[in-house]
Known about the structure:
Layout: E1 4-6, E2 12-13, H1 14-37, H2 41-66, H3 70-78, E3 88-89, H4 97-102, E4 108-110, E5 115-117, H5 134-151, H6 156-181, H7 202-210, H8 212-215, H9 227-246, H10 255-271, E6 281-282, E7 285-286, H11 287-309
Antiparallel strand pairs: 1-2, 3-5, 4-5, 6-7
Helix pairs in contact: 1-2, 1-6, 2-5, 6-9, 6-10, 9-10, 10-11
Amino acid sequence: MHPFLLTWPIEISSYFTLEILAFIIGIYISVKEAKRIGVDPSKILDLSLIIFIFSLIGAKFFHVLFDGHLHDYINMCTAPFKVENMAKYYPGGCKTDAMCVAKDLGNICNLSNGKCYEQTCLAAFNLGRGGFVLYGGIIGGFLSATIFIIRKKMNFLKILDISAPVLALGVGIGRIGCFMAGCCFGNYTSSFLGISFPSGSPAFKKHLEIYPELMHNHTHSLPVIPTQLFSAGANFIIFLYLYFLLRKKKKYNGQMFIQFLILYSIFRFIIEFFRGDDRGSLLIFSTSQWISIIVVILSVMARFVIKNLNKEENV
Length: 315
């Protein structure tokens, strides 16, 4: 597990670092495709930057609101000792705030238990330390792209098709970042697929919370399903299908984007059943599963509308 790929001059999470890499690769693919189909590459560059910024904002916004951490972020600002899942053990117990700062374990010491906590009102806005919801990123990027495309009078459906394989590739690379950070882990498994994450990882903390006596002397989490790697693999397959098979054989503008939404949403709905991390939920499904259901329904409806609008167009 490598939660931070870059630690100097500032700490940047593995997820964020790999998303930057995905962004760079995505720009290259998008510009190349834009030239092939006669779209102004300079506009694609501008659009890519806007999508990158607002997808990060959307992903962070959804994380704060729907991942069940809103109260934690509020308490980190107003009552940090209530955020027990953020507490860090100080060998022998801390005595002063300075001791926590010196060990980089936080900035405030709880004398009652000797643990270090972090008091900050900006944790929810820290892009470099992770905490993103993919659907929030897609929605944020889509809304910002829509405004840009309309203002620049670009072909909306063509641009969506350019973005479809890039989105799949970006999600796949991002999930590798999730694996390196140890987040988005799966349920416990005794099968050969199981992977254990080290002490301090989200999986270890979760298992320590559920099985405190069992985990007391453990240095790693219990083996869990590597849902991050399955997600990465599925999105790479979607990318290969869209870019190498469908791209030059599509029958109408918008087809690639619609297929991306349907394929991704179906897989996301399934993989959520195997996730073991804390998930926002409503009734029997997670927040992401409800969004997946809505996206599939809207995508199927949009498919028929777009197909009829484009039936006479030569793509």
